[in-house]
Design brief:
By secondary structure, this protein is α+β, with helices and mostly antiparallel strands. The chain is built from 16 helices and 23 strands. Strands 21-22-1-23 form a four-stranded mixed sheet. A four-stranded mixed sheet has the order 2-14-16-15. Strand 11 and strand 12 form a beta hairpin.
Length: 506
């Protein structure tokens, strides 16, 4: 998921000034903070979503990786998680049946389906296609027990407010990588004419007037938040008049949402720039739309090739979405070349060069690739510095990489990495979604066996990643164990004495 509402407190927004334009009491501000709930905890498994591991299974599952195995072949990239989730919310804008194609089979997608179903929306999966029918929305209130488990579910507030004139959505909380408040969402909805109250952890928004339509407005975002940009863009599609969003997020997922809304008849221009203009329409119509490839998954596989010194073809991708990632790989001595119109091939270097990275909103270097590049830089020649500027707690993977022999020091939001000749396999625990990918990458390159716990994080954002890597030649598999989570003593898990046989390349 994606990482979807890339927000942080600004210098003047320390739990107070960011709420200047909101009808929020001090008591409710305190309640908002105390109700921050970890996004990356396990969530309820939906049995009608195939090929997804349940959290119950996670308690007895680990991923074993035997490192040092070269990879080769082509790997297929799934649809973008962060696009899929917001487009599912966007389908609520349409009173007719819509189809989304290239939808990945992920726990987060299953959870969003359950949230939509709780609102009275009919959701049916047919392979990689979701058929969503929001013709008869029966609820304006999303259930807390579901919203609290998935940050992206808060996006339904915009479509519900636009369709029904009222929405009641629980505060979604933060996540293990940092707090992501909804103040920009609230102020934007207020600018569109909504009355917004926050009480007992519930955001209650409604539109006054006979027709209960939002009104077009000029909105400036203090920070180019992806979530706020998407929420306000969806809300404005059915508003009366023209809306302008300044300092808007420019991420590809924002463009994908705009294109989907346009396919339904919305009038949106400027998506992908810092100024988006929406001319409201009275009604949207059915659409059949295919979601873009997941740029973070694609970047993860490019790093897999680099860290294992292997040549891999990654497809389908949109190369322009990977500009910052490719530029950093090239700065490290790794070649990345386009192949056809939708493929990129990573041609590794035997020597990985050190480089510095600072995470920034798009088109800067993505925070969702920070952990994966840190794994790669642990094996570089020289010293590197990674500065995490988007989330305040997104360095939880550092202790786990250090367990594998990495030389990393943390100072504030900076990680200083001194490259080492080799990593060693070890028992580790994933702390969040992208940290899980970083540990998999480190395990692929490490000497010996790595065991990874916390697989529910990985299952939320990577569709069948172990199967895809196995087809490239990786020696890895998921097993069940009676060991408790994070019990990393030598006798915690009984492991096979031999690695699994290699799968045939596809």
């Amino acid at each position: 998921m994606t990482n979807h509402a890339n927000m942080r407190w600004g210098e003047n927004d320390k739990l107070g000034k960011s709420w200047d334009n909101c009808n929020v009491s001090g008591k409710i501000k305190t309640e908002f903070v105390t109700q921050l709930i970890a996004e990356d905890r396990p969530i309820t498994f939906s049995p009608n979503l195939p090929n997804v591991h349940s959290p119950a299974e996670e308690n007895v599952s680990i991923l074993e990786i035997w490192g040092g195995q070269p990879l080769s072949g082509q790997v297929n990239v799934s649809g973008a998680k962060n696009s899929a989730l917001v487009l599912m919310a966007g389908a609520v804008l349409c009173p007719e049946e819509c189809s989304l194609r290239n939808v990945p089979s992920l726990v987060d997608v299953s959870c969003m389906s359950e949230i939509l179903a709780a609102l009275g929306v009919k959701v049916k999966r047919e392979g990689d296609r979701l058929v969503i029918n929001a013709s008869t929305i029966g609820q304006s209130k999303a259930p807390y027990e579901l919203v609290s488990q998935l940050r992206a579910s808060f996006f339904v507030i915009g479509p519900l407010l636009a369709r029904l004139g009222v929405a009641r959505i629980p505060l979604p909380g933060g996540c293990a990588i940092g707090a992501r408040p909804v103040d920009l969402h609230v102020r934007g909805l207020q600018a569109l004419g909504a009355e917004v109250q926050i009480d007992h952890g519930i955001v209650y928004a409604y539109v006054t007037g006979v027709n209960k339509r939002l009104k077009g407005a000029k909105i400036y975002l203090d920070y180019p938040s992806v979530g706020a940009t998407e929420t306000l863009m969806m809300a404005a599609t059915l508003a009366d008049g023209e809306t302008t969003i300044e300092n808007a997020a420019q991420e590809p997922e924002v463009i994908d949402l705009a294109n989907f809304c346009r396919a339904m008849g919305a009038k949106i221009r400027g998506a992908g720039t810092n100024t988006i203009t929406i001319s409201g329409v009275s009604r949207l119509h059915t659409a059949d739309y295919s979601i873009i490839p997941d740029r973070v998954e694609a970047g993860t596989f490019l790093v897999a090739g680099a860290i294992t010194r292997s040549e891999i073809l990654v497809s389908p991708v949109i190369p322009d979405h990977l500009t910052a990632v490719i530029a950093k790989l090239q700065a490290m001595g790794v070649q990345v070349v386009k192949e056809g119109s939708h493929g990129v091939r990573v041609i590794p270097s035997q020597n990985i060069l050190a480089t510095d990275i600072e995470t920034l909103p798009y088109p800067g270097f993505p925070t969702d690739m920070q952990a994966q590049f840190m794994a790669l830089l642990t094996l570089s020649e020289g010293d590197s510095i990674i500065s995490e500027t988007v989330f305040e707690n997104r360095l939880g993977h550092v202790p786990e990489l250090s367990r594998m022999g990495a030389d990393i020091r943390i100072k504030g939001n900076h990680a200083i990495i001194r490259g080492v000749p080799m990593l060693s396999g070890a028992p580790v625990v994933a702390t969040d979604l992208r940290a899980s990918a970083a540990l998999v990458l480190a395990g692929l390159a490490a000497n010996g066996k790595t065991t990874i716990q916390g697989l529910h994080h990985m299952d939320r954002g990577y569709e069948q990643i172990e199967s895809k890597l196995q087809k490239l030649g990786a020696r890895m598999h998921r097993i069940k164990s009676d060991a408790k989570l994070d019990d990393r003593s030598n006798d915690a898990v009984v492991l096979p004495s031999k690695p699994p046989m290699l799968n045939q390349h596809s």
